[in-house]
Amino acid sequence: MAIEVIKYSAEWKERWDSFVTRSNNGTMFHLQAFLSYHEKGRFPWHHLLFLDKKNIVAVLPGAMIGTTFESPIGSSYGSFVTDDIDFATALELVDVFSDYCRDRHVERALLTPAPFIYQKVISQNIDYALAYRGFTYDKHYISHAIRLDHRDFVRTFQSTARRYVHKYVREQPLRVEVSDDYESFYPILLKNKERHGVKPTHTLDELLRLKKLLPESLILFLVFKGSKPIAGSLMFACNSRVALCFYNMLLYEYEQYNPIHVVMYEVVKWAMDRGFAWVDIGVSQDTKAENQMTPAMSLIRFKEKFNAHGILRSTFYKRFI
Questions:
Q1: 238 part of a folded domain
Q2: The domain spanning residue 243 has which CATH number?
Q3: What pLDDT, in 10s, does the model give residues 208-241?
Q4: Per DSSP, what are the bridge partners of residue 315?
Q5: Is 97 within the bounds of a domain?
Q6: Which residue range is the domain that position 223 belongs to?
């Protein structure tokens, strides 16, 4: 195999997205359809295609920030998207990419792949090829995910979570609906983030734009007390393996009704019914700590109530110059 690397241009969009969709490890975050939700000119995109006789072997979304190649930019996961490739192909991809960077005087590269749970066939060929060629880890985040391998999944929850779920099922004090009412959800999101001194990743307009671009990939659950929305969970159907809980928010004045326990139950049930293997609940970092790897212990304990287990979201790093 003789792999060549070229910079992405718009005429490759359909073939790029088709490759990502059928690949071993691609997610919605690797799709050009997803990346196009950003306003034009916001990022200096530098997406790459790796070809063998004009056939796509891999794609690598990213941007050139000064003299640093970063993947992802403007999304959660990046790095190489491939089929279930052998190690020789993985090593050649890393070598071709490294040569491409050196030839263009790129000083460093940062690559953050999706965790292993997103793969159809578990393989660390790319990881080992990167390590063998001198990539190290820039950082790790601890993320948490629920494996959907128990039909009676509530039994795997910790006792407190089980009690709240059983009360919800028995008494129906709250109502949960799948909804497109992002206008009702966004104030809950804003208020929740303000409590923690941060802003949402997305504006309301961006969420609406994403829903229009990828209507089957965004699923909003709203929790109602009577007619009032008091909580919600925005799910991203990232690929056939994993549904990602991107936002899990509540109005804290209704905390005594345990709406997050309720929506987590409905989300897990929904994901299991649709054949997902995992529900990713996202990273669990203390965003106010000086060390960005500091775990948020209270958040981790909460996630573990739902039988969530820790998985690494790691960033590879190499300096070329």
A1: yes
A2: 3.40.630.30
A3: 999 999 999 999 999 999 999 999 999 999 999 9
A4: 139
A5: yes
A6: 144-313
